[in-house]
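Regression check, 1,3-dihydroxyacetonephosphate case 354:
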Amino acid sequence: SDPALVERARAAKQALGDRVFVLGHHYQRDEVIEFADVTGDSFKLAKDAAARPDAEFIVFCGVHFMAESADILTSSAQQVVLPDLAAGCSMADMARLAQVEDAWDALVDAGVADRVVPVTYMNSSADIKAFCGRHGGTVCTSSNARTALDWALAQHGPDTKVLFLPDQHLGRNTAVLELGMSLEDCVVWNPHRPDGGLRPEQVRDARMLLWQGHCSVHGRFTGEVVDRIRAEVPYVQVLVHPECRHEVVTRADLVGSTEFIIRQVEAAPPGTVWAIGTELNLVRRLAAAHPEQRIMFLDKTVCFCSTMNRIDLPHLVRSLESLAAGRVENVIEVDPATAEWATVALERMLSLPG
Ligand code: 13P
Ligand code: SF4
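Current build output:
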């Protein structure tokens, strides 16, 4: 990266000192991660954001829903800055509040809503998290999806159903691989159809109502690619994120959140051969940090998460320099009514065991 920009970032961060705390998601560019005070997956960063109540500014190098969660979990005196306001998430955009409310009304009409617990993946807007808080549900991340589903399914006895938002893959993979449900226990709710595109008996019998959303990066890995790499690369260990399709995770050796993926690589002996199915910035960084292992990207035709990559060094420099000059730009502020219920859902998640 441009040495002049690196120097400007360093100078602005130094001038701000303890007033600023920079969080970096593992999918961020190297040039940004270099300036992060902490790095983590969504779960770790949600906790880390709350761990520095003395910092006036939290600069969140990640995407919009993460910055919203940081705003909710930090004190009102702290301001959360997202260096590029266009850093959204296509998956989070697949569940809009009005659509979720319509789906809920359909579940009320079907006579099942009193047995449904809504659980939203962290990758959702604050108003979806608030919806879950208001309706007795919770939030989960890819690190604690199993614990959150265990909790949710125990809320109304054996007939409890979960409405899982917005990532159908994380919902299905967790239910089937970790909770031992069958694929038939899981049905997909199509938000573009008033009845979810489901027959009444499907809604009645399902245990998991999976919102029809997916990650545009992880959703691109296929089972065929896993089969091909196994045929071509002897002793390869396939390590993937649970946002991948079911056909991918069932063919993988190991499945877990980005923190889990990092832990597996860090604990592996020299000479281990990996094909990793997650965001490319993280895979490249792992490969550079572990030359004693052979680390490949699962599919060379899949590229970076374009919205994560919007946060680059020029945007970070702009944020840090404007804060140092007394201007607070790109503040993410969740409105108090939404924040109140989203807090309920997020705190339920943070109080889950593990
Ligand atoms: P985790 O950080 O929970 O692994 O989620 C991955 C992701 O896609 C974040 O946008
Ligand atoms: Fe959203 Fe997928 Fe990008 Fe994560 S990797 S921010 S889920 S589009």
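Comparison notes: The first strand starts at residue 20 and ends at 25. The mean pLDDT is 97. No diff flagged against the previous build.
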